[in-house]
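Let us work through a complete example step by step.
Step 1: write down the sequence.
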Amino acid sequence: MEWAVPRWLPVAEGLAALAFAAAAVATTDRLATVMGAVAAVVLAVFAVRDVVAPVRVSADGQGVTVVQGFATRRRIPWAEIVAIRVGSGRGRFGRTGILLEIDTGDTVHLFTRRDLGDDPDAVAETLDTLGRDSLNP
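Step 2: predict the structure and record it as tokens.
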């Protein structure tokens, strides 16, 4: 099983990056140029990440593979997972969102609905069932 960003998202991010870049070039206001360029770069980075590593979480009978950092994959055997839960967290601009948390004791991997392309509650339930079945055949 795997969960990935929606396919349309990097396309939308790329188009938005192009729009901000065009606006930055078209304006004569120095601040608007800088802000447009920064927005274009940030959106382009998100689009590249979503193309390079679209699958954020995958799971099988042996364990879970997660993306950490920009696009590094980490394999976590079921026995190393302390907890899989859903929590809320404060994201960018102070917004509160629902997060899937995969806790290994040393590290907590957090994934949003945007990362998963699915409801974090449903993903947590599927992972919990798969992990239990794998540890207790």
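Step 3: interpret the result. Residues 30-52 form the longest helix (23 residues).
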